[in-house]
Amino acid sequence: MRDALVAAAFRLFLERGYEQTTVDDIVTLAGVGRRSFFRYFPSKEDVVFPDHERCLADMTAFLAGGAEHEPVRRVCDAARLVLRMYAENPAFSVQRYRLTKRVPGLRAYELSVVWRYEHALAEYLRERFTGRPDGTLRADVIAAAVVAAHNNALRSWLRSDCEDDAGAAVDHALGYVQATYGHGVAPTAPEEQKKRPDGRPGPSARPDEVVVLVSRRDAPLWRVVQELESALGRG
Amino acid sequence: MRDALVAAAFRLFLERGYEQTTVDDIVTLAGVGRRSFFRYFPSKEDVVFPDHERCLADMTAFLAGGAEHEPVRRVCDAARLVLRMYAENPAFSVQRYRLTKRVPGLRAYELSVVWRYEHALAEYLRERFTGRPDGTLRADVIAAAVVAAHNNALRSWLRSDCEDDAGAAVDHALGYVQATYGHGVAPTAPEEQKKRPDGRPGPSARPDEVVVLVSRRDAPLWRVVQELESALGRG
Hints:
2 copies of one chain form a homodimer.
Chain A: H1 2-16, H2 23-30, H3 34-40, H4 52-64, H5 71-88, H6 90-102, H7 104-128, H8 135-159, H9 166-181, H10 190-194, E1 210-216, H11 221-232
């Protein structure tokens, strides 16, 4: 029933236009009553994005179970759940992408959905970065970077009519974010930074020491920074 | 007239609530006709955000004149225009912040405004990064990071009832983004990287060389990375 309503709605949106299609038109074509429509969808806009609520719930559950994982990697993996939802039905995703671009109201709806994903990622990171310097700032910036990278790759894929490899494009985009933030901001408890398990002061308690790093000039910068952080005891 | 309409609108929004106030109520209190209202504001929502169109125009003009500047610094400075708009009238900004939090329709409107700022920053960066590897990806991610950092500081300031120093908070937040992206992604033409003006190969054409960096262990990471980039000839 739910799928039949979505199919009927999109058929009419494409034939007549979104604005010109009423909920009555949709239920007539689907052969059901108005009440059935509103049981599944609070409004006509919601039928355009039938899977986001489920995906948001999946993302929230995924993040709730991720307290042990490296946090930036975890939010990147959470973003991949959104891609998977789009990739499950490429033809539908392309139709919706084109429709959303044409209808300002749907664009606004989509922005509010994107904000909810970003908010879920930011909340998870804020929790993980509790007590760290600039914890909420880092959380908000990294969540925004993850969403922007994911959406950059997603849009390229949708514009290519799903001919490119969506998974590879999103992996590449999220790899850029992970290379930027995936180290150094990983939360280590301040006590862990200051003390070793044996009670001797740890790396960051020895400010007077110098660190020497030797690198090949052609090494990628992220790789050098990774080594550097490791040498400084902040990895 | 425009200011009088905004003042009348906010007085009513605070007294009766946003949803319970009509455009007729606003023009009656301001002592003008409906036509005057709609000359300045396309809808009731627009009177809540009377300065964003001007600020967006200022930002676009500022970015259009910034082709010679370091791009990440330029978008950070562009974001400061938004802060300045909020800081010009702190009492009004706090009232609006509280109102927007309570009314979902205004929250959606605000998201669309934020998206337009982010889009303006991303378009500028895309132009500056044309032809660079991952140019659009970097542009989108950096624009999103700038907006997230700016808004993190802006919201803290609004929540403090404007008691904190807004400029210092935003400088700190944008400093985090600049330290992350302000070097290394600065577009240098590939030819410049490969050749010196005298035709001899430049730094990145000498992959077999090693670079030695010596750092105090307590130096801030961004400072070390800056030195590192300089040593690698990528600053």
